Target: Schlafen group 3-like DNA/RNA helicase domain-containing protein
Amino acid sequence: MGAWWSGSVTTFLHTPPDQLCAALSHKVVQNRFQGEPQQARAWEAQIDLLRNTLPTIPNAQDWQVLFEFPIPRLGGRIDTVLVSPGAVYVLEFKIGSSSFDASALSQTEGYALDLLDFHAASRTHPLIPVLVATDAPPRAQTTPLLLPLGVTEVQRVNGTGLKTLLTTLAVQTAHTENPLIPAQWEHAPYDPVPSIVEAARQIYATHSVADIHTARADATNLTQTSACIASILEKARTEGCKVIVFVSGIPGAGKTLCGLKAAFADGSDGTGATFLTGNPTLVSVLREALTRDTVSRWQKRPLVEQRMESTIQSLTKFRDHYVGRPAECPPEQVMVIDEAQRCWTQAQAVRKSASRHVKLTESEPAHLLDIMGRHDGFAAILCLIGHGQEINDGEGGLACWGEALLSRPAWRVEAAPDVIGTGDLTHLPATLEAGRQRFLHLGVAVRSLREETAPRWVNAVLNGDVETARRLAAQTDLPFRLTRSLDDLRAGLRHRSRLTYRCGLVASSKAKRLRAEGLGCEVPHMDDKAVSQWFLNRWVPDRDIRASDALETCATEFAIQGLELDFVGLCWDGDLIRAPSGGRWQPRRFSGTKWANVSSAEATLWRLNTYRVLLTRARYETLIWVPKGSADDPTRDPETLDRIADFLMTCGVLLLEPAAPAQAFTLQNDLADLLQD
Model:
């Protein structure tokens, strides 16, 4: 990956403008983009402006100039990057624009934040995003706060003011202890870790997970797992047999990415694939995201929607369609099942379908195996298994799959070693003949970008293992903070999300007393449109109150499972408390006018798993709000809520620090300016 053109300032100034434009135009053809006359004119204006600006900047002759630097995760390219020894300038040009519109500000900041997170040479020096609206009225320019590292607020300047701005910043960043080598910046590792929605878009376009990884060497098994799956499927296809593959992994390790890779694989050999999930929110969000992305490339929406409906399907609708049509064989020969451990047991399937048009007689695994077994010769099922993700009653776990497979010997079984053997709900039975493939387990979290110990810490906390939790917390800066104020929670999320990162509030579906705290509005997880709007629409810059970052509605475990946000605000209610004695977690349900303890071992497991899901949804940081309660309301007993907060702090969670006044002012000022613009 590299810029479409790069060179020192000296080289840039000695290269004729028409030669630069020709080189950029050649890249358009080379990358199979559609050349537009306005793009060529924009390059000409941009080059002229930089040729008039750069010679006046002191000691800038060895700076590096990069045109059209690609940012694959965001699906775009930075117009110009200027790399000096003391700072990196991210320039977005809006040629002929007379205003600094909100989408352009968000785009510019997004590019800079992406470099901070994923570009190795951009982590130890200031990143300064600059939006150049060439025809905008002049603004009173204030110097940004230049920290040793990180992204400043977006600088807004017109064409005339660019020279003064860059000169001022060059003087301020001239002296640095560890100067960058501008010519080497472009070649530093760039390792993007997209969100699940961004990854789906990328995989759908390229059919590859090769670029979806982290800078950590131990995360390479994402690619290895994908290759292992492809090898198993190809062997079964060649031999004309049926195979089921179990891929396991910790939360956020990339199971869904591998599943999407298999579902989006090129079907040129005549064997189509479908991605099935019982999670309706994942279906609706991925479908809508891919539809919006594809329609934006001038394809007709009805045709795109039809294609997405066959590629990403509701497990429930797929199951009922073929159970109700026993003679019909699905066209897809490869079925990918997300969170396969959540499939129903026979008792649950019979009970749930008793009043439906299609009656189920066996467990979901048994029905799905029989549906795919209708194929003559090759058929494959890829089961994605998330440990600790069972969140509802009637979910049969891997034991249910094992039981169904024991009576269907035609299926060859390949599985991660950790899913075989102990005879409980979470494992395949040891008596099941299965091939053990170590690459079918994903053990490294790639969702959490800043701290890989987060899943282990969450497990320790939910297991009540204070010693382990404290040890993990002492080793690193945990991506968790605690507050007792809902206002501080919202302020902390807004400060962290800025213009680009995505934030939102989550809560347990059993959190029934948050409404007394002023937060009782849930995202209806069965409403496809509402869920897609919550995950995909934006508060900034669109002011869409339905968006997650409007911070008005909460997503429950059913809406958020399988998806993620950059920053999460977890609202902890009295449905999972620390018992007054015994040092354990006590789940409760709200009945009538009071809380009642839940004693069932299965119900306890489901509630702990609910909070496991909620605690592992953030790519960067989770802010946990535990209300203070009210002494006048027994359903919000302060002592009960204090025990939760105290336990979390004992496990190493630090208190959320309120945003500094200067920082808060910057954000508020940006938002006010957006409204005025």
The first helix runs from residue 9 to 14. The CA atoms of residues 141 and 165 lie 8 Å apart. The chain is about 40% helix and 20% strand.
